[in-house]
Model the fold of this input.
Amino acid sequence: MIIICGNAGKTQIDKLTEKFQADGFRTHVSQGTETTIIGLIGDTSKIDVEDVEAIDIVEKVQRVSEPYKLVNRKFHEEDTIIDVNGVKIGGGHFAVMAGPCSIESEEQIVSCAKAVKAAGATFLRGGAFKPRTSPYAFRGLKAKGLELLLTAKKETGLPVVTELMSLEHLDLFNDVDVIQIGARNMQNFEMLAEIGKCKKPILLKRGLANTIEEWLMSAEYIMSGGNENVILCERGIRTFETATRNTFDVSAIPVLHHLTHLPVIADPSHAAGKSALIKPLAKSAAAAGADGLMIEVHPNPSQALCDGAQSLTPDAFSDVMADVKKICELENKIF
Amino acid sequence: MIIICGNAGKTQIDKLTEKFQADGFRTHVSQGTETTIIGLIGDTSKIDVEDVEAIDIVEKVQRVSEPYKLVNRKFHEEDTIIDVNGVKIGGGHFAVMAGPCSIESEEQIVSCAKAVKAAGATFLRGGAFKPRTSPYAFRGLKAKGLELLLTAKKETGLPVVTELMSLEHLDLFNDVDVIQIGARNMQNFEMLAEIGKCKKPILLKRGLANTIEEWLMSAEYIMSGGNENVILCERGIRTFETATRNTFDVSAIPVLHHLTHLPVIADPSHAAGKSALIKPLAKSAAAAGADGLMIEVHPNPSQALCDGAQSLTPDAFSDVMADVKKICELENKIF
Amino acid sequence: MIIICGNAGKTQIDKLTEKFQADGFRTHVSQGTETTIIGLIGDTSKIDVEDVEAIDIVEKVQRVSEPYKLVNRKFHEEDTIIDVNGVKIGGGHFAVMAGPCSIESEEQIVSCAKAVKAAGATFLRGGAFKPRTSPYAFRGLKAKGLELLLTAKKETGLPVVTELMSLEHLDLFNDVDVIQIGARNMQNFEMLAEIGKCKKPILLKRGLANTIEEWLMSAEYIMSGGNENVILCERGIRTFETATRNTFDVSAIPVLHHLTHLPVIADPSHAAGKSALIKPLAKSAAAAGADGLMIEVHPNPSQALCDGAQSLTPDAFSDVMADVKKICELENKIF
Amino acid sequence: MIIICGNAGKTQIDKLTEKFQADGFRTHVSQGTETTIIGLIGDTSKIDVEDVEAIDIVEKVQRVSEPYKLVNRKFHEEDTIIDVNGVKIGGGHFAVMAGPCSIESEEQIVSCAKAVKAAGATFLRGGAFKPRTSPYAFRGLKAKGLELLLTAKKETGLPVVTELMSLEHLDLFNDVDVIQIGARNMQNFEMLAEIGKCKKPILLKRGLANTIEEWLMSAEYIMSGGNENVILCERGIRTFETATRNTFDVSAIPVLHHLTHLPVIADPSHAAGKSALIKPLAKSAAAAGADGLMIEVHPNPSQALCDGAQSLTPDAFSDVMADVKKICELENKIF
Done:
């Protein structure tokens, strides 16, 4: 780590280097006319850049090595391939997680599961616990919803993905195949630390306004707990643009593939917020090298209780799948 | 709520209005040449605008009334004044919450408590559970930290404010006077719903990239649970600018005073990330009408274990207080 | 246009409606308990929403019809196809504009032109006037650079695209085939109005932080001047993310195809800022339906005087073209 | 400048250092296990960080010294005080620029000039050339407007400030006291270079989404042309928040005072977009140390042709001035 200090006296610089030495770092100081540069040698992953930048004599801090280790491709070159009951994600394996925003009834989730399976989905997604901006909005069928999701799993054999909103519900997730951590909980550090202790695959969505580095640090939380099965999911970030619900950061896909060995999928449904945009965004994600997609499908969108209308009908979904398959072929992805 | 639809057929419009009528709304349709406008009459607070905008034939949705009720000044004109063991916030009462980022030792927190009290602070703040981007960084003394905080409370009589990071810790907070919900948990809806059931004052920090409306909806979660003691705290938002840790949104203070009756305080320490900026930002917040401030003070900043150097020394803090007091006098604030 | 007013007296509402009537609009007022809604009928394209929202009694303003007419697909359903000396863009025709960031020498631009033509480029791009953040940086060969660009045009027959930075240079652009308006001049309204008077195709880049609507309004400036040959170019927007130079807004491509009949191309070089990202972004843009690409290619990137290293070598460029061609085939694009 | 390279071979590093040496820099290479750090010694102000970061083997670039020199406080410690016909700005002198968004008639501008002078304004502002998002909106009285502005100057003796939108209009600005460069032209580099050649004070507004460093580089353009009279004006930046027209970045004021010797004023009218917010924002700017304010005042806001309603009435303006004066007294500002 390189620390650039403004016009500071020798005593201040000494005080600072001694502090770092006391924390077990070696320091290398090069004194310029207006600036002093301190090189910090040691495990800087436990240092928060903002803490150091907050020091009055410090002007800028630049990391030399990334603050994450376990998720870092530099120390784990080959792609991580996550195997969920035989369904693989990453390393050339393309996965499609489809289903309704929220689980509403056995009929709805089972019919939807069959439809998305027929269209090529490899996972069933469905929300039992729903994060809602308004306390007055429908917040999901909760435990009952999980039961229905597992019924659909039995009926179709599709592994299931669903969101965990509180550690207090964790016991209910025993038969869930992939636990989703939503955008709003991406930096719920207590939750990340806790789910790091289980071995279940975790689908970690990107926070609304989190950098790729912060996202990787959240994945590091999970891996440092002992759980190596982390899937990253780009779902759009918050910007000044209002034409789309979020701005789909397609660049994050190749950037992540360079920085980490973990699989990266994309959720065009939440990024776009408009069903008409799902097809072009799904194709752009696949063309950018995504390892999979998460797409909302509802047997009867206009009657959906939540996010309904951004969902695709089963027919529209198979149409999207047909195009995505062609791009996966160009990409030599197994799908 | 006004819903603007593009060139859609009568059957589509009818299908949509019937759906809303089924949900208990009255609808008023005015048919134009290229657009149809649907007026929705009823309690639209449970409707998520994004869900409606996601409907394919819908082009734009515009709320006529705010989605929040209990926090809305329209239905509660006078300022809410929150009384914490006799210390008041809001409605002309200015509160100052000061103390270290994290609690490190009894000596540290007690001496700091005495120092900030002497300088004019009305609350003691200190972190026992610390949110950290890196799993390898110091995350606070946890339960032990709370004990030390309560010791400092006994020694000085200052009411204490500290952050809750997980509902599983709630039992430890019985003697805490004000529970802080951090920026990263502003949309941790399960937590908001749960703390809405207690009567303790809640300090709700603004999320890194949350709009003022989303922030008020999170306050509505707490109030709808039955807890009317909510204090809003502006701490800077995330933007493209990197010269400051966050961009301090000073406008949020007067905007909130117009929209809600709840007290609004500001946290210049986290907004700025540099101790040199705390004084001008604290003054600007007071001049914009803030009901209080939250400021990090550490007896020995350069030795702090976390955010240390963005903290003020007790002397620097009393210097800031002296200037803030003068502005509070101009504002006729009781401080 | 729908104007939502807060608790305002009848006289205030009357005063406001009279003002609009005086401006030639018809008004329709519906009075609610807490809010009054004013419907404005007439040509609202000349009204600036922000001006109306600034009115004290106004809470929100919602357009019913878009503020742009000539660029609006609603009034011009079929795609606009721009023909530049027989090379077409839009309506199924895919164009590739390639070349160096800046023109450095006859040898450089001519060899580069030949190389990109061989690899499949249909236009030669090259900067003679360069926008630079620093007054001390290289700002292009200016007039001399244009001469060299035209030499390369003669040698290869490729139509040329280059940026106009000041109206005072316009006379030098007579033999240039497509005039580029850079991101920083997207709202240089005097320039937009002036180039609207010529008939040359204009490549209008999106501003660093401009919305799609503002971008379309700038295109409307050009078209309202009489020039119908406008090509829109997405080049990334400014967000909080720093892993890429800009955030490539791939969604803008399908969104624009829905809103306007004008062709839309993408510039992955400036969006990414890293040559390694150009290939995946170029493919994602093509898969999202882009009508073309603008890519920086330099015979010897590491020696380039500007943006050099984000450029591709001719070999790397043909590699990208090979993949893009395959996607264009899936998209039934003529390329 | 410090350049951090990823795992690159010695030949690549040598090639890179040779390139920099050829450009006249001295290089200092320190080879680590996974990274190589290149220190660049020399005048790096002409280097664009993004160009270097674009180099494939480069991971990060960190400046040691700022890219700006003439505007840098490090090389010019004392505040610059700009004297406009005896009216001073900066170094303890507080200036207030007030007047209508656009000049509409002699009666309007003259009466407004008298009113703002009576209330304490030290400059008259008024728009003759107006930047408008829509080509169909009113764009100012242009040359005629400038005449009327100068009439008001004669009548009141107030120096005048007005916006230049194109170099072609420059000749008309001979009797204008301060030339305003609007937010949308902050990076119109040809314009900046040109006005750097005159000696007139320049009011440089911050771009909608420009960093403080980019803003200072634009000021450096003007100063490097020979014009030392630059005033910086914060007017709000573009963020995700829609409750205000822009997000007023009050922190920019103390940050700029630390980085540069140039005076810094604030424009709460454009930042807020709502007249009700002007007073609290004007006060917060003064409390943060601003050297002045720019405020829109209109004799009859509701009849204004542009931005009218965000303007204050003369009475509301004197009310704001009364409060601002009190804060200036606390700040020991001459006003």
About this structure: The longest helix of chain C spans residues 314-330. The mean pLDDT of chain C is 93. Chain C has two domains: 2-62, 82-330. Residues 2-62 of chain C form a domain with the Alpha-Beta Plaits fold (CATH 3.30.70.1140).
